[in-house]
Specification:
heterodimer; A: Rossmann fold; 6-stranded mixed sheet; 3-stranded antiparallel sheet; 9 strands; B: mainly alpha; MetI-like fold; binds adenosine-5'-triphosphate; binds magnesium ion
Chain lengths: ~250, ~325
């Protein structure tokens, strides 16, 4: 379903990111170049501190790159659904209000926004928590709310920074299936940072592996399992081989 | 109730000292709101307990009364301070009678009460209280509005901050009593000069808290809003105001009590109306009971204002309260 014959959704050319510090700056990303095609699901793996979150921030336009360029299809900033590494909910808003935020920002009528948010609450399995405040949610629940919020305004691209990091194994696998389904139905482009090899192999069309700081692309691995993927693929030989390759490349 | 005491305490002190308190207040605000000293049994009410409570008419009456006085109840048990208050009055009465000192030095509370009644009946108390109240309120409003505007600009522009902050800090070295005569000379003995004095005294604490509040906006939420391409107005309305509100309201609480001080100082310096004027009259005529009446009314005024802001805080920051 990836259309590599079409122009890329986004291409990154020779991107560097350096944070100022006392002595010469801290180089976090070094000569990163890759393209992401429309409706592609790309996972980014890498050791802690390799600049994965920084890369997502740059893609979202939250941080200017030190050098290099990012070109989006049609040359305009896409509409983004961002799930941050921390749930990052507004503490004064209820679950429902947090999810409707992106719709409010686009001036969608309140009742339409409400209905959409309610659908998403059903999806993330938080019925009954519509009017709970973030402080009354567990870490995993909050993270699911953050995912629902990122989906609310039907963005062109999802940028996910370890969205399932705080979930228990069972919920996490259910969310994989859900995300995979949403992605296939909505035909979004997804770039997701993760620490989990099996998560990346279960979801992605392609896995990028970054080196330790300064992060460079060490491996660009296509994952050619057909969608929808079932649990069983995890026990196949091919899955094992890909997992091995990723693991070796990370270490 | 401790807050009420501290408000009364503030009224009795030099304004400059209070400004030094601001920093400490800022630190305690968050905890203050989260920990409103609610009686434990009020906080935890499981449905099961509710049923058993309903069965007992006394308990349910008690509960209804509590609902009515919920605000007071939340603040603290009212009986202990009330007892202290009554005891203090009794001691004062005894001392005034037994010491043999003349009433113009220490009027007993009973005389103060009588004077209060007279002042109330001839309308002078109400009239002067209204004058002071109007000054305080308009001053608070003017001071707060200008502080918010300047505070927002400071929080948003480093250049503006460097430009004005030396002047702002220096201005705090001048006590308000020194500025008050100037205000009277320039703007006359009427309402305007008092409003300006109140506004001046309110300005700084509200300004500081506005700036601190706006700087308090979590960076991660700022990034969220930017990732969603929020406009400046949406940023202000949906992120900056809600996150700055707790600290801003802390400043407003201080400003509310300071405004009362401003009005009285202004009236002392030049005025023919208001509670400060009443105190001056009482002093001149050795009518010390009247001085007490005016002082108590001032304390009451300050506490009501403080309580109103506290109430506003509870309404607006319900998301921070322990249910
Ligand atoms: N705003 C910033 N200013 C200075 N240094 C920063 C900033 N943001 C990140 N860094 C540094 O950049 C490096 C990479 O950070 P980043 O958050 O991108 O790593 P990461 O790959 O997401 O790590 P993790 O897997 O632990 O989340 C770290 O060393 C971090 O200290
Ligand atoms: Mg990260």
């Amino acid at each position: 379903m990836v259309k590599t014959h079409t122009p890329p959704f986004l291409s990154i050319n020779d991107l560097d990111a350096t944070f100022p510090d006392g002595n010469g700056g801290l180089q976090v990303l070094k000569s990163i170049s890759f393209s992401v095609y429309p409706q592609e699901f790309v996972c980014v793996l890498g050791p802690s501190g390799s600049g994965k979150s920084t890369l997502l921030r740059i893609l979202a336009g939250l941080l200017p790159p030190t050098s290099g360029e990012i070109v989006f299809q049609n040359h305009k900033q896409p509409r983004i659904g961002f799930v941050f590494q921390q749930a990052n909910l507004m503490p004064w808003r209820t679950t429902l209000q947090n999810i409707t935020l992106p719709l409010e920002l686009e001036n969608i009528p309140a009742d339409v926004a409400r209905r959409k948010a309610q659908e998403l609450i059903d999806l993330i399995g938080l019925n009954g928590f519509e009017s709970s405040l973030p402080r009354d949610l567990s870490g995993g629940m909050a993270q699911r709310v953050a995912l629902a919020r990122a989906l609310a305004h039907d963005p062109d691209v999802l940028l996910l920074d370890e969205p399932f990091g705080m979930l228990d194994a069972l919920t996490r696998e259910r969310m994989w299936t859900e995300l995979s389904r949403i992605w296939q139905v909505s035909q979004k482009t997804v770039i997701m940072v993760t620490h989990s090899i099996s998560e990346s192999l279960f979801l992605a069309d392609r896995v990028l592996v970054l080196t330790a700081r300064p992060g460079r692309i060490k491996l660009d691995l296509p994952v050619n399992f057909p969608h929808p993927r079932l649990e069983e693929i995890r026990y196949t030989k091919h899955f094992g081989a890909l997992a091995r390759e990723l693991k070796d490349s990370i270490e | 109730m401790p807050r009420y005491f501290s408000a009364g305490f503030f009224v009795a002190r030099e304004p400059i000292l209070i400004i030094l308190y601001i920093k400490n207040m800022n630190h305690s605000i968050k905890k203050d709101i989260r920990d409103p000293l609610i009686p434990i049994d009020y906080r935890i009410e499981s449905p099961v307990r509710n049923n058993s409570i309903q069965a007992n008419p006394w308990v349910s009456l008690n509960r209804k009364l509590r609902e009515m006085f919920r605000f007071i109840h939340r603040t603290q048990n009212i009986w202990i301070p009330l007892f202290t208050f009554v005891l203090g009055i009794a001691l004062w009465e005894a001392f005034a009678r037994l010491s043999g000192l003349p009433a113009f030095i220490i009027p007993p509370p009973s005389l103060v009460a009588k004077r209060f009644e007279i002042a109330l009946l001839d309308g002078s108390l109400l009239q002067n209280t209204l004058v002071t109240f109007l000054e305080v309120l308009l001053g608070l409003l003017t001071g707060t509005c200008s502080a918010v505007l300047v505070g927002y600009t400071i929080a948003k522009s480093k250049g503006f901050e460097h430009l004005v902050s030396p002047f702002l800090v220096a201005s705090q070295a001048i006590p308000i009593v020194a500025i008050a005569p100037l205000m009277i000379i320039w703007f006359g003995p009427g309402l305007l000069s008092k409003v300006l004095i109140c506004a001046l005294i309110v300005f700084f604490p509200v300004l500081v808290n506005t700036v601190v509040g706006l700087r308090n906006v979590p960076h991660s939420l700022d990034e969220l809003m930017r990732s969603l391409h929020a406009t400046r107005r949406q940023m202000l309305q949906l992120l900056e105001i809600p996150s700055a509100l707790p600290i801003f309201l802390g400043g407003l609480k201080i400003g509310a009590t300071l405004s009362v001080i401003g009005a009285v100082v202004g009236e002392f310096v030049g005025s023919d109306k208001g509670l400060g004027f009443l105190i001056n009259i009482g002093r001149g005529q050795y009518d010390t009971a009247l001085v007490f009446v005016a002082v108590f009314t001032l304390v009451f005024l300050a506490l009501s204002l403080y309580g109103s802001v506290l109430y506003l805080e509870r309404q607006l920051l319900a998301w921070q309260n322990n249910h």
